[in-house]
Amino acid sequence: MRKMPDNSQPDVRIFYANTRFEQMARRPGGVPRQKAMAQAQAKIDELKSGFNDWLDRELRQLNDALAKVENDLNDNASLETAYRNCAQLQSVCAAMGFELVTFVAENLCKIISTMMSGAAYDKDIVDCHINAFLLAKTDQYRAMSPEQVPEMASGLRRVVELAGRNSVRKSAAMDE
Amino acid sequence: MKNATVNLRNLVIVVADPSSYWRRAIYGILRSFGANKVLEVEHSMDLIRILSSQKIDILIVDTQIHPHNWHKLTHMIRRNATNENRTVPILLMSNDTSERIVKDARDAGANMVVAKLMSPNILYDRLCWIAFNPRPFVDCPSYFGPDRRFKIEGYPGGVGRRKGDKIIKVAEEVGPALAQNDIDSLFKAAKTDAQDA
């Protein structure tokens, strides 16, 4: 049998907030859609031209953070900074359609993540990724997919796999 | 909605994103839409400071915001009964728009989730949607936020739980999809197969 709605719920309140946004955004006089789109597209194009500078800056910051971790293996704050830098590189480059940089960033994120959960800092692995970044960010490689550079892609994947295994082994040893 | 125009002039819009690149992109897009009061925020601490010191009109926040995560922030905004920004529209930006994220965002009280790369068109559409399709707020012990029901295709278990829930009329039965003879022949064939085996 079909139950009727329960009307005895005094502690549920449903109301319209009628926010200032709703009121003001509906006012006439806004920028017409077509004009707004054209202006926004021009801004984005402008921003795209500054992408290389942004990428260089982010990579420098990532390098600096990782160098600090190398000097002090207990520097968790720098490790977190490096992780965030890397995640941002992944996020922005994915959105811009730069597959290879996204792939390298995603890989390095995984590596840093294993370090955050206790794996040892491995300078070779980090350097290998930084070098991969330097190659991936060039105009020639940037838009390529990992499948178009199979040796590099499989090498980096293997490195992540090994780092993951080492991390599991280390945490198992710590449990014992 | 495709032809609607939003007027963002004098509305206080906060863009909270740890990435300077994204902040600049969203800022530029919003300015192109006519917004003249856009605040950029890098960390959740700054966002909390703004939320507790001034009235804002819309919040566009990325899921990678830190040190407080987006879920905690959204919850904090919605559950604070004394904050004047409690009902502010919250638009969540994310690279990951999996069902899990969308559900979490909805249950935390966000108005919408948009995928990055957010094109100007999509952002404009979402702003129009929020402005022209206001959703009621639900305030109950376990949830405060915009109504999570976008469209009603039936209640869970067939029963509406709210006072205003009406019985939903489903499509009327128009007779069996198969004629009785067809149904009989299907059973007959199955029976014969079983006997053969």
Can you put this structure into words, describing what you see?
The complex is a heterodimer of chains A (about 180) and B (about 200). Chain A has helices at about 20-25, 35-50, 50-70, 75-95, 100-115, 125-135, 140, 150-175; one strand spanning about 15. Chain A is mostly helical and about 180 residues long. The longest helix of chain A is centred in the C-terminal third of the chain and has 26 residues, at about 150-175. The longest helix of chain B is centred in the C-terminal third of the chain and has 17 residues, at about 180-195. The chains are: A mainly alpha (about 180), B alpha/beta (about 200). The interface between A and B is large, with 50 and 59 residues.
List the defining traits of the structure above.
heterodimer, A: 176 residues, mainly alpha, Four Helix Bundle (Hemerythrin (Met), subunit A), 8 helices, 72% helix, 2% strand, extended, disordered N terminus, B: 197 residues, alpha/beta, five-stranded parallel beta sheet, two-stranded antiparallel sheet, 16% strand
What percent of residues of chain A adopt helix (DSSP H or I)? Answer: over 70%
**Bulk shape of chain B:** elongated
Order of helices and strands of chain A: EHHHHHHHH
Instruction: Tell me the total number of β-strands of chain B.
Output: 7
* Total number of distinct structural domains of chain A: 1
Tell me, what's the shape of chain A? extended
**Average of per-residue pLDDT values of chain A:** 85
Q: What fraction strand of chain B?
A: 15-25%
Helical content band of chain B: 25-40%
CATH homolog superfamily of chain A: HPT domain
